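Table S7 (text form). Paired inputs.
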Amino acid sequence: MTLEKTITDELIHEFSKTIEMFDISPTDARLFTILYLNHQPMTLDEMSQVTEKSKTSVNTGIRNLFDLNLVKQVWKKGVRKNLYTADDDLYQRFMQGYLGRWMGHINLQKQTINQIREKANQRSQGDLIEDRIKKMIKFHSLIEETFKEIEKQTQKRI
């Protein structure tokens, strides 16, 4: 194994750890990192060869990354196969996706907890958990406020 190959493998391994922190599977994080490091768009066959994964597995990973807006399909004149590339603006892409997932989750949780609160209040002893429910809602509201502020800062960066 050449020194360059070793360094590339180490870089893929280490950067993939960061990508995994955004709730992306290790396999998809590795695939993203390979695409990001490659300066040219890649076909599914090329990715399959580099990752040593089946074309089906790579296709699933690309769809996952595509759904998260982390990769895009590109066309190149004269190339009949689908080509994919990773976006250069890592910070913007990851923060938008991460914050979007969190904000959606927070809103859903607040709605669900409020529905449970209504059910609890209809019971004779519903007030026993009212304080905890208020704290749960406050917890989600604080997270929401924090992420909205981060989102504002992310937008200013554009």
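Next pair, protein 2 of 2.
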Amino acid sequence: MNADPLPTHGPAAVRRWAGSRLRALPGSIGYLLVGGVSGAAATVALVGLVLVAATSLLGVGIPAIPEFLRLIRPLTEFERRRAGKRLGVPIRVAYRPMTGGLRQRLTAAFRDPANGRDIAWMGLHGVPGMVAALLAVGLPGGALNQLAIPAYWRIVPPGTVETFGFVVDSWPLAALSALIAIPLTALVLQLP
């Protein structure tokens, strides 16, 4: 993961910084897109956990608790491997074995801090992971669109090009839409 600050030592340094960010952009977008898919899976798993917890209040879901926790482990392990590879440091978690009778498996499930971290991860990663994936696609697309508006606003039906709350129907507004690409591009360069 590249967290280089914006250089302040001249235009050449800024170009080098932006170039390195642009080279890292496709991999970063891919990483965030996969994170969006795992975020969707984490959200589904979290809904499943809520259902298991609700049925446990009735007594019928209690045996499903350890099995459900086992089912989410491949997803959390997949994300740990991805994050470890991205950070350059493997992330390993040792789970306590859930063996024996139901009481022993439940005790192991509730006492294992790794299970609590997995559940917390599902809650923290689910929706934000999907939002990050949408931004990974939307920001670059939005920046390119803003830059292209001056080229196409005259050839589409009048009043159809609307951007950031205004309809582009004049050259000054077309230029303004292109200027909006500057902060969007700055945000895009933050994706890596």
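The radius of gyration is 24 Å.
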